[in-house]
Write a structure and sequence with these properties.
The chain is built from 8 helices and 2 strands, in the order ββαααααααα. By secondary structure, the protein is mainly α. Strand 1 (4-8) and strand 2 form a beta hairpin.
């Protein structure tokens, strides 16, 4: 029989259940205020357990943040994967880019937890969070729909990821100057998509020419 951790309104939290409940509650808090809004004490009260109970699953707040951020990246990846699979005249990269923009603006608290806190930078290589971020980046590479030639895809994937992040953060801070440039955020993102695909195609062509010349 699995050991009892705490009880709330007639329901029993078992090992694993409380962990998931805390992560879900923390994600709801992050929706409103990013990483700063997450408090173990407040979460314990919210899910109806004693203050020490969460520490059976998380050594400290940093461990909780890492688990919550990993779940946020998994949800983000699932959303990107669905956008890429959806039938459309747009390229996979365009669908991924626009979905990223939408996610960043619509769920900005979660986005800031993922991309504007130090949680990811502190994650150990091979950790749950580290693997979740790698999965997301792999989708950006996949969306390029290009052959693997050296690390050209990875470089262009990193460039457009950085560009998308810049648009989201500028817009969130009220610093997006699209009006002055007579463009929208969506149009700017499409510019990034077109430039990225064109640059990658040229780089691959040049790399193959150089290889052929050296053969």
């Amino acid at each position: 029989m699995r050991s009892q951790v705490a009880r709330k309104a007639g329901n029993t939290y078992h090992h694993g259940d409380l962990r998931d409940a805390l992560i879900k509650a923390a994600l709801r808090e992050a929706e409103q205020g990013g990483a700063e809004a997450i408090s173990i004490k407040a979460l314990a009260k919210q899910v109806g357990v004693s203050q020490p109970a969460p520490y059976r699953h998380f050594a400290d707040r940093d461990a909780l943040l890492a688990a919550v951020t990993a779940e946020a990246f998994r949800q983000f990846s699932a959303m990107l994967r669905a956008a890429m699979a959806k039938p459309s005249k747009q390229s996979k990269l365009s669908r991924l880019a626009q979905a990223t923009l939408d996610f960043g603006l619509r769920r900005n608290g979660i986005y800031r937890l993922m991309f504007a806190s130090r949680t990811v930078s502190c994650a150990a290589k091979g950790s749950e969070l580290h693997e979740a971020t790698r999965e997301t980046f792999a989708l950006v590479i996949e969306a390029l729909d290009a052959p693997a030639v050296g690390f050209l895809r990875e470089r262009q994937a990193l460039k457009i990821w950085a560009a998308l992040h810049g648009v989201v953060m500028l817009a969130e801070q009220g610093l997006f100057t699209g009006e002055a440039a007579h463009t929208t955020r969506e149009e700017l993102v499409e510019d990034f998509v077109s430039e990225t695909k064109a640059a990658l195609a040229v780089a691959i062509k040049d790399a193959r020419r150089e290889k052929k010349a050296g053969a």
